[in-house]
UniProtKB/TrEMBL annotation:
Cross-referenced InterPro entries: AAA+_ATPase (IPR003593), AAA_lid_3 (IPR041569), ATPase_AAA_core (IPR003959), ATPase_AAA_CS (IPR003960), CARD (IPR001315), FtsH (IPR005936), P-loop_NTPase (IPR027417), Peptidase_M41 (IPR000642)
Subcellular location: Membrane
Stated name of the protein: ATP-dependent zinc metalloprotease FTSH, chloroplastic
Alphabetical list of NCBIfam families matching this protein: FtsH_fam (TIGR01241)
Organism: Ambrosia artemisiifolia (Common ragweed)
Family: In the C-terminal section; belongs to the peptidase M41 family.
Gene Ontology CC: chloroplast thylakoid membrane
PANTHER family according to UniProt: ATP-DEPENDENT ZINC METALLOPROTEASE FTSH 6, CHLOROPLASTIC (PTHR23076:SF118), METALLOPROTEASE M41 FTSH (PTHR23076)
Amino acid sequence: MEPNTGITFDDVAGIDEAKQDFEEVVDFLKTPQKFAAVGAKIPKGVLLVGPPGTGKTLLAKAIAGEAGVPFFSLSGSEFIEMFVGVGASRVRDLFNNAKKKSPCLVFIDEIDAVGRQRGTGIGGGNDEREQTLNQLLTEMDGFSGNSGVIVLAATNRPEILDSALLRPGRFDRQVSVGLPDVKGREEILKVHSKNKKLDKNVSLSVIAMRTPGFSGAELANLMNEAAILAGRRGKDKITLKEIDDSIDRIIAGMEGTQMTDGKNKMLVAYHEIGHAVCATLTQGHDPVQKVTLIPRGQARGLTWFKPNEDPSLTSKQQLFARIVAGLGGRAAEEIIFGEPEMTTGAAGDLQQVTQIARQMVTRFGMSEIGPWSLIDPAVQSSDVVLRMLARNSMSEKLAEDIDRSVKHIIEKAYEIAKTHIKNNRDAIDRLVDVLLEKETLTGDEFRGILAMFSDKFSGNVQQNDNVRELVNV
């Protein structure tokens, strides 16, 4: 039990909708008489639902800090023991202590450890976990009145929780704590940059644009990695270079040993330039941020893209453009070196491309089969037990149609990718020469060189002296 968490809503950023919901809970705890006067009851429980690292635990502590009430925190797994009855006893003790400190908050993290759907265990329902859950259900809405005790719980798997736990009267509210959008990421970066010395050229809004899909925990880790990198390099401030390197490290892995000059290095250069050219010349794709031959993780080279908008909604055109860009590396290998010289370097690209194409057909209804979902939700559930028990009711004919549609999308994209490579061979050769010399090309340098060779692209890029110098070398 913490009498004061020391955390307020000012320490929580990027999840404004969830904060608004919880401001009401704080008002309940501070001035219950205001709501009692109009016949309102304090909610018994609030369930926080969202991916890992989005700030569910931090938000719970902030509610207790704002309200100035005691904060009981524990994990769902702490109830469970090998001895039957111990978990139920701990639940009773927890609520007895909480009632003595009323009004207060009880926070149960990872409640799915104890709140899983009953009846899925082997050997009947009389096991320790189910007894613990039964006691929790009784305490939250049983014969005893728990006035002033609000239960907060967090989980990233709400679909496996018992329906009796989720009904009104126990968890009256479910608050979604999702991944932050671009504005939310910028606010989170501001919070985690307060105690760090940033160079004046560092723009948090640009960093927020470069980190789609990052959670609050990942953004905090990003700024910490950048600070460690700046210290290692003997700098007194964090520059954009440290932040860029930290993003690359988090997404792709640690920097590997640079390749020596040779056939493999040239092949990787053509592969990466193939990705970048096909992405740039296909309408709907995000712009290239940089192309590099510096290995990271399992990748021998990398092409980075910068999202134009927050990728919460993606169009059919954008998905198809990603498939064309993903096949650009393999297309470059085949056109330039010949089919016998194709390598295993495109294995990851092909896996990603196939997954996108299959989702277009089966989940998003973006094929000639029609606008309907072709996969049972239980089959694609994150719960292993549900996936094992689910029956796939798809007919053989429909499975064949799906495979044919996926194959058609990928073949069409591959033909477009090969056409881009054939039509821009001079530009690709020049780009590869520059990339082999510099090992990293920025997006502006790449687009500038491509614009000098491609009539289709030349009107979209302003030339500068540095790019002309690169081309004329």
